[in-house]
């Protein structure tokens, strides 16, 4: 099977290639992994289900660093990062953690360490207020929230750095599917919040990486 990989992405953007695995066949995934393995190239796989991973050839299963909690896998990734955290990832609730972990793994794949602060949603506002001074030390926050997605707006009114908001599909009733969270964030009154698409933890991490790269110039 002939597939055209984006081998120049790192030189062009500073970001390694990522493979979105949903709707790809087992044959397509095996071909992609084989090409990366032959060239000893790094690769991040996103939305790789446990069922898809289990169907991969054993040689690829053993070569991949697979995390079912984020549905991500890393081939030829960097060594674990021991440096200080350069940003933080925050979630409103524990149900938002899988999307936050997708962002966390994307950052780790690019050698960037992030602090994680989970379950500080506005339903218990004291949880955020207890941690806001700690969060102030980071130049960037990725804030992941479903339901009414109020957390990024509240943080945006308390914190001066870059807020990258990720609405999630967590919720029920009118909140189901994440459209309510997305519309809330697009209409946020906190100025300057950057809003990603629903459940796009990978995109949020890439936005943070671009911002860090500019800051490092």
Keywords:
Rossmann fold, 39% helix, 2 domains, globular, single chain, 217 residues, 9 helices, 4-stranded mixed beta sheet, 5-stranded parallel beta sheet, alpha/beta
What order do the helices and strands come in, and which of them pair?
Blueprint: H1 9-13, E1 18-20, H2 26-38, E2 43-46, H3 50-55, H4 58-63, E3 65-67, E4 72-75, E5 87-91, H5 97-109, E6 114-117, H6 125-135, E7 140-145, H7 151-156, E8 162-167, H8 179-186, E9 194-195, H9 201-216
Parallel strand pairs: 1-2, 5-6, 5-7, 7-8, 8-9
Antiparallel strand pairs: 2-4, 3-4
Helix pairs in contact: 5-9
What is the CATH top level name of the largest domain?
Answer: Alpha Beta
Question: Which architecture of the largest domain does the CATH hierarchy give at level 2?
Answer: 3-Layer(aba) Sandwich
CATH topology of the largest domain: Rossmann fold
Task: Tell me the fraction of residues in β-strands, as a range.
Answer: 15-25%
Overall outline: globular
Mean pLDDT, rounded to whole units? 91
Main beta sheet, described?
5 strands, parallel
Low-confidence stretches: none
Spatial ordering of strands, largest sheet? 6-5-7-8-9
Our Rg estimate from Cα atoms comes to: 18 Å
- The total count of strands amounts to 9
Element-level helix/strand string? HEHEHHEEEHEHEHEHEH
Tell me the domain tally: 2
Number of helices: 9
Helical percent range?
Answer: 25-40%
* Quaternary structure of the protein: single chain
Distance between the termini: 41 Å
Which structural class do you get from the secondary structure elements? alpha/beta
């Amino acid at each position: 099977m002939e597939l055209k990989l984006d081998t120049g992405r790192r030189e062009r953007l500073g970001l390694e290639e990522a493979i979105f695995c949903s709707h790809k066949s087992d044959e397509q995934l095996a071909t992609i992994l084989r090409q990366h393995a032959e060239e000893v190239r790094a690769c991040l796989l996103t939305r790789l289900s446990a069922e898809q991973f289990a169907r991969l050839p054993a040689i690829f299963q053993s070569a991949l660093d697979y995390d079912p909690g984020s549905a991500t896998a890393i081939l030829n990734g960097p060594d674990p990062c021991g440096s200080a955290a350069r940003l933080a990832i925050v979630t409103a609730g524990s149900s938002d953690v899988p999307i936050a972990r997708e962002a966390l793994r994307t950052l780790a794949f690019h050698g960037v360490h992030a602090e994680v602060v989970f379950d500080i949603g506005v339903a218990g506002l004291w949880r955020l207020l207890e941690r806001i001074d700690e969060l102030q030390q980071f130049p960037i926050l990725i804030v992941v929230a479903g339901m009414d997605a109020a957390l990024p707006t509240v943080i945006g009114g308390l914190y001066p750095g870059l807020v990258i908001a990720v609405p999630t599909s967590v919720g029920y009733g009118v909140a189901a599917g994440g459209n309510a969270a997305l519309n809330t964030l697009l209409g946020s009154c906190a100025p300057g919040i950057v809003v990603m698409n629903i459940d796009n933890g990978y995109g949020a991490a890439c936005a943070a990486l671009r911002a860090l790269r500019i800051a490092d110039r």
